[in-house]
Description:
The protein is of the alpha+beta class. The protein has 2 helices and 13 strands. It has helices at residues 2-19, 52-61, and strands at 38-47, 63-65, 68-76, 80-85, 90-94, 105-106, 110-113, 122-123, 131-136, 139-145, 147-151, 161-163, 167-172. The strands form 4 sheets. The chain has a 4-stranded antiparallel sheet. A 3-stranded antiparallel sheet has the order 1-3-10, with no helix packed on it. The protein has a 3-stranded antiparallel sheet with strand order 9-4-13, with no helix packed on it.
Amino acid sequence: xxxxxxxxxxxxxxxxxxxxxxxxxxxxxxxxxxxxxxxxxxxxxxxxxxxxxxxxxxxxxxxxxxxxxxxxxxxxxxxxxxxxxxxxxxxxxxxxxxxxxxxxxxxxxxxxxxxxxxxxxxxxxxxxxxxxxxxxxxxxxxxxxxxxxxxxxxxxxxxxxxxxxxxxxxxxxx
Length: 174
């Protein structure tokens, strides 16, 4: 009998050992907030011809094309838009004859299109009233070469130097 009791005892120990778990768990919280990323970089400038023949042809056509253009590099992790606006309410004028000193040329006469050689021109918005140049879904860096022209009218536009600073603004398009 002693032998049977020992065998039963050994069997009981084996069953008890397999019922005990050999695993425990713990937890840790995880939180990562990804912010909206909007990036823009503008290089270059808009230059116009200085010779009278180009301006004579421009007055006939109604526009003079810029010979130099700005390039925009942009990216975002949200859908976005880029707008353009002037540094003032009108294009600045210097060097005008005293009788023409008060003349003001509309900012919308300066026009930009977002991809050189394609698409429609967009008139430059006045300061605080940007005009939408382009929209894009989120994505990696894109480089956009812009192109510009100036609307001209020989009966209205006085001689002098017209200027402004163009501000390109990138904003979330939600």
